[in-house]
Amino acid sequence: MNEGDAIVLFSGGQDSTTCLAWALERFERIETVGFDYGQRHRIELDTRPVILEAVRNGFPRWASKLGVDHMIDLSVLGQVSETSLTRDVEISMQQNGLPNTFVPGRNLLFMTFAATIAYRRGAKHIVTGVCETDFSGYPDCRDDTMKALQLALNLGMDTRFVIHTPLMWIDKAETWRLSRDLGGDALVDLIREESHTCYQGDRTPHEWGRGCGTCPACDLRAKGYLRFKGEPSSEARDPK
C-alpha cells in the first residue's frame, strides 16, 4: 500500500476506469481529471460522472477515498490538430506509419495539466492508463515518454512526482483480468456497461461493452474480452 494522494487521468474509458480502481486500492485519497479537447467521441465525457457515482455507490471500501473530479477545457488542442479524433475524417494509417487517431501532444499536455493539479492539491502520485502493449503505435504512450515526462515535470516544478502506469506492459485481456482482480465481476460489469472507448462515439451494446464494433478501439477491446473469457479467437474458429 502506497501512502499519499493521487491524481488519476480519467477519460471514462476501460483503461482509465481500471487505473482508477488500481489507484483506489493503493492510495489514501484520489482525485480524477478529465479533458475536453474537442474529441469526436466526446460522449466519453458523459460516462465519467456515471462511473464515478457507480464507484461511490457500489464499492464501499473505495467510496471514502474518491474525492474531487476536475474537468479541463483543452479545446485548443482540437483546434490545432488534424486527426480523425478531432476532425470528421475516416480513420486510416498515415505515411509516417502512425494511425491518424494519434493526436500529437495530447498525452504531453494531459500529463502537464495533471501535474499542475497535483502540485496545487499536494498530491505526489499521478496515474495514467498508457500502454506499450496495446498502444496503436502512439509514441506518447511509451514507457520512455512517461519516464522523460516524470523527469521534466519534476525538474520544471521542483518536486518529486511519481508517474504510475499500471497497464504499461499488459494487453487488453490482462487489463480485463486486472479489473476483475481489483473489483470482481461488479467492476467488470461496470466497465462493460458504462465505460466508453469507441472512437466513433457509438453506444451500441455488445458482450464486451458499448461501441461501433469496427473501429480500432472496439476491435482491440472486443478481442481482449474474448481472450479474457477464454473463448477462441476468430482466427481459431476460422483457420486459414
Automatic annotation (TrEMBL):
Question: Which molecular function term from Gene Ontology is one that the record holds?
Answer: ATP binding
- Name the pathway: Purine metabolism; 7-cyano-7-deazaguanine biosynthesis
User: Per the UniProt record, which EC number(s) apply here?
Assistant: 6.3.4.20
Q: Which UniProt keywords apply?
A: ATP-binding, Ligase, Metal-binding, Nucleotide-binding, Queuosine biosynthesis, Zinc
Principal EC category: ligase
The record ties this protein, via Pfam families, to: QueC
- Write down the Gene3D superfamilies for this protein, in alphabetical order: HUPs
Catalyzed reactions per annotation: 7-carboxy-7-carbaguanine + NH4(+) + 2 ATP = 7-cyano-7-carbaguanine + 2 AMP + 2 diphosphate + 2 H(+)
Keyword check for DNA repair, yes or no.
Answer: no
Where, in this chain's numbering, is Zn(2+) bound?
198, 212, 215, 218
Q: Which cofactors are reported in the record for this sequence?
A: Zn(2+)
Q: Binding residues for ATP, per the UniProt record?
A: 10-20
Biological process GO terms, please?
Answer: tRNA queuosine(34) biosynthetic process
Q: Which residues form the signal peptide?
A: none
Q: Where are the transmembrane segments?
A: none
Task: Cite the cofactor comment.
Answer: Binds 1 zinc ion per subunit.
Q: Which InterPro entries match?
A: QueC (IPR018317), Rossmann-like_a/b/a_fold (IPR014729)
Q: Is Ligase found in the keyword set?
A: yes
Q: What does this protein do?
A: Catalyzes the ATP-dependent conversion of 7-carboxy-7-deazaguanine (CDG) to 7-cyano-7-deazaguanine (preQ(0)).
Q: Cite the NCBIfam families for this sequence.
A: 7-cyano-7-deazaguanine synthase QueC (TIGR00364)
- HAMAP family per the UniProt record, alphabetical: QueC
User: Of which family is this protein a member?
Assistant: Belongs to the QueC family.
Protein name, as recorded = 7-cyano-7-deazaguanine synthase
Q: Where does this protein come from, organism-wise? A: Roseibium marinum
